[in-house]
Design a protein that fits this description.
The structure is a single chain. By secondary structure, the chain is mainly alpha-helical. The chain folds into two domains: 1-42, no CATH class; 43-73. Helix content is 55%, strand content 10%. The protein has two helices and two strands, in the order E-E-H-H. It has helices spanning 15-39, 46-60, and strands at residues 2-4, 7-10. It has a two-stranded antiparallel ribbon with strand order 1-2. A hairpin with a 2-residue loop joins strand 1 (2-4) and strand 2 (7-10).
Length: 73
């Protein structure tokens, strides 16, 4: 902790800890967004959700390293 005039002003952490905290924050934001969607009645069945994920993966597979990923359905 870095202080100025006896008051905490900043915290110094290693890169790994910072990245972990950012990932945790992102996951919490995703969960909060999902909760709001559920409360608003925006729901998908499991088959609809899986279909959307598969379509998204198919669309993006040629982007990574310029080639298709043969493991994707």
């Amino acid at each position: 902790m870095i202080t100025q005039n006896g008051e905490a002003r900043a915290v110094l952490v290693d890169v790994h800890t910072y990245e972990q905290s950012q990932e945790t924050l992102a996951l919490l934001q995703i969960l909060a967004h999902g909760k709001k969607q559920m409360e608003a009645g925006e729901k998908l069945s499991l088959s609809e959700a899986v279909g959307k994920v598969r379509a998204s993966l198919r669309a993006g597979r040629s982007v990574e390293h310029g080639e298709a990923n043969p493991q994707l359905p």
